[in-house]
Amino acid sequence: MGAHTEEGVRKPKVKHDSPKRHLVAFIGSLVLTALAFIAVAYEAVPSGFTVPFIVVLAFVQALFQLFVWMHMDQKGHEFARISIFTGLFFILAAIIVFLLWVWI
Predict the structure, then answer these.
(1) Residue among 11, 29, 13 nearest 73 (CA)
(2) Taking the complete model, does pTM exceed 0.90, yes or no?
(3) How far is residue 86's CA from residue 80's CA, in Å, rounded to a whole number?
């Protein structure tokens, strides 16, 4: 008859990643940052495509941050994952609506 039981407490399942996964993600983030820098500094990407290219690189890097460093791929983070992607959907919808509103 313990007053405190841990059955009702949900704790995320923490899996211990190898340093290799973190090293690959870190190098991937550095490569994405270098690609963005090269695209602007050396004008390697056509000028009309530079901003969309950098936005795509930023989106990929944000996914790296969420799933590798913030452990959003582990069990117990479903609510945070759903909240982040729902907010992202509404933000993208608002941006598209405002862009169409201005251009049409």
Answers:
(1) 13
(2) no
(3) 10
